[in-house]
Recover the amino acids of this structure.
């Protein structure tokens, strides 16, 4: 069995530090926007929808560029650098439009880096271990999401329960992630620069079919920020939210590599389909929950869904693409599904009401209906 390539390990470490920075802030953000800045849940949904939509469009554009440049590493470094600089900007916000601008800049960075980074992973990894490679990357990324909130909680207590300074603290691990990109080794490919771009309509029919199906699911898969808001509405304070979110990320990190490994031996569609069933149970359960105990049970279950679908989904899409269109296809997939996330964030925020029960139950039911279709897709 081939070994995980060096670049995959380095990029996994890069993602670990960047996600530690991002996830240090993620449990803080809903409380900062709705509490410190006084915005309603509909604005939170709008901000997260616009943020994810921005990242999605950026992924589509950068994926196409990644198929036309000799080196992909500069794009990856630029994207991580932009996201690192955006974090202090959010902390300086005096009103929610400034926070929106900060999230916009942060997600521009994510859009610039993601497709070239994923294309680098695919380029260095034999197809037989593609699931393992993406699983390792997602596991490292999510390990950062375990460490980040715990650092945030410790600093929250040390800084007398002030939220704004946490945005400055987050810049430190983000800067480390940018520095580590120097250790990525990439051989230039002049052939990519001279090769004509592959039009989207020329991408394989199997790829288009799977992308459409997963885009339908994206329409009901709204931002995790709203799940954190739901945890708050059920009675969890900041410390409780951080611990519940850490449990979610522990499960996500712990299962990502095994899920990717499993998808190298069994159809990726089946692994993804099982993930949708888990999603349905977690979302509907959070919608019907009436106690804080349910959050500590259902958020970790939601982590299992993410592990079964995130890296597995990327490996599944990569299997359906020719090498010359890898960046374009990965970017288009992430762009299309991301636009679905924008729609999901907007409608869920508007339908949230006083407790968020309706959008959670609707999304869970829709995922359960889509699961059989995904399971039957080869």
């Amino acid at each position: 069995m081939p070994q995980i390539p060096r670049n995959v390990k380095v990029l996994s470490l890069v993602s670990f530090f960047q996600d530690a920075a991002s996830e240090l802030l993620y449990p803080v953000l809903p409380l900062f926007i709705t509490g410190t800045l006084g915005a309603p849940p509909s604005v939170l949904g709008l901000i997260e929808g616009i943020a994810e939509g921005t990242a999605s469009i950026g992924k589509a554009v950068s994926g196409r560029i990644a198929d036309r440049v000799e080196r992909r590493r500069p794009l990856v470094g630029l994207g991580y650098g932009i996201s690192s600089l955006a974090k202090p900007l959010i902390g300086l916000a005096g009103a929610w439009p400034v926070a929106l601008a900060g999230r916009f800049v942060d997600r521009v960075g994510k859009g610039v880096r993601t497709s070239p980074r994923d294309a680098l992973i695919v380029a260095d990894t034999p197809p037989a271990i593609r699931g393992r490679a993406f699983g390792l990357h997602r596991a490292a990324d999510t390990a950062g999401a375990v460490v980040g909130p715990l650092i945030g909680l410790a600093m929250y207590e040390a800084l007398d329960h002030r939220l704004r300074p946490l945005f400055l603290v987050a810049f430190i691990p983000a800067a480390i992630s940018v520095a580590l990109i120097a250790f990525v080794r990439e051989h230039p490919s002049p052939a990519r620069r001279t090769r004509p771009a592959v039009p989207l309509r020329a991408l394989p029919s199997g790829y288009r079919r799977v992308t459409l199906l997963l885009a339908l699911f994206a329409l009901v898969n709204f931002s995790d920020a709203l799940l954190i808001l739901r945890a708050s509405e059920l009675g969890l304070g900041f410390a409780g939210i951080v611990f519940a979110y850490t449990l979610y990320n522990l499960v996500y990190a712990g299962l990502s590599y095994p899920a990717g490994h499993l998808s190298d031996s069994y159809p990726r569609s089946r692994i993804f389909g099982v993930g949708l069933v888990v999603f349905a149970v977690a979302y509907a359960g959070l919608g019907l929950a009436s106690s804080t105990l349910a959050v500590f049970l259902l958020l970790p279950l939601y982590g299992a869904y993410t592990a079964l679908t995130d890296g597995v989904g990327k490996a599944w899409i990569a299997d359906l693409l020719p090498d010359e269109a890898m960046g374009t296809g990965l970017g288009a997939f992430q762009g299309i599904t991301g636009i679905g996330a924008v729609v999901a964030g907007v409608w869920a925020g508007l339908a949230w009401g006083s407790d968020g029960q309706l959008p959670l139950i609707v999304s869970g039911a829709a995922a359960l209906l889509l699961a059989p279709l995904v399971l039957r897709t080869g």
